[in-house]
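Hi support team,

I'm filing this because I wasn't sure whether my run with biotin finished correctly. The job status page said complete, but I'd like someone to confirm that the output block is well-formed before I use it downstream. Pasting the exact inputs I used:
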Amino acid sequence: MDGILERLLTGEIVSGQALSEAMGVTRAAVWKQMEQLRAQGFVIESVGRQGYRLTACPDTLMAPVIRRGLETVWAGREIVYLKSVDSTNRYARELASRGAAEGTLVVADEQTAGRGRRGRGWISPAGEGVFMSLILRPQAHPSQVAGLSLQAALATARAIAHVTGLDARIKWPNDIVCGGKKVCGMLLEMNADEQSVHDVVAGIGINVHQRDFPPEIAQTAASLDLLTGTSVNRAALVRAFLQEFETVSSMAQAGTLMDAYRERSATLAQRVQVIAPAEMFTGTALEVTDSGSLIVLDEQGQRREVLAADVSVRGLMGYA
Ligand code: BTN
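And here is everything the job wrote out:
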């Protein structure tokens, strides 16, 4: 199916005979695949005796559609599209443990057991969002991996801003908020031993077409469609994310990542409430360190380093 779709995506008229020869399948098999593509919303004209022409493409995350116009060197050089999966992170971790290359992307139309931070779930209804996991193989000590979470957050925020025009900001550590509401969450999972990192899976969930949310998140979450009043193209978001991830990785190497991250932060210089596993306090967010922790000046004037916590930012996601 991918081979036929790739040829149709060129926009040229492609003959059934040429397709059947190139793919090594019968004309009847080509016709069947055309019908399957049509059933998925692709508008394919039959042009006389000349062949087939694609005139409209649905909002799909199929790999050839994401790859169209993608100019990355390593991010997304392998794209695995799944119609439905329990969790793209679980699937990508399994691929990584079997040696999948850095930059392999797993993307699904639906997750039946999407995983969120702190053991929570991630609601992932079919066709409504982007659910994807990127495999990374950093040459880093396990203690440096938190920095990758900043890279993933910055790349995603820039991609959302680029595609939608929204002012996408990062709420530490890596929620993306637009108009004060969460539109995207991330879960990075690492496979490492004491000395070295084998792989990291950066899992990203973006709310795109949702019109409503379950009561427990209805006040804090939004979708890109609701915020823009348009229908945002999911493949364009994935493509922009892959491009931005490479740009942001180069920024990390050149030492310019943190300035760009700070500019996109919704947390820095704001009043925050920190809810860590063992304590809760309020203060002012001062800084995000290169290794990804948040420095907060508490009400007693003490600088406190927060490594992992839920942080509410005044004025965002319902925190007054
Ligand atoms: C959060 O709690 O904010 C993080 C949510 C992360 C969800 C994404 S969706 C794609 C990937 N696969 C998962 O199972 N989780 C992440």
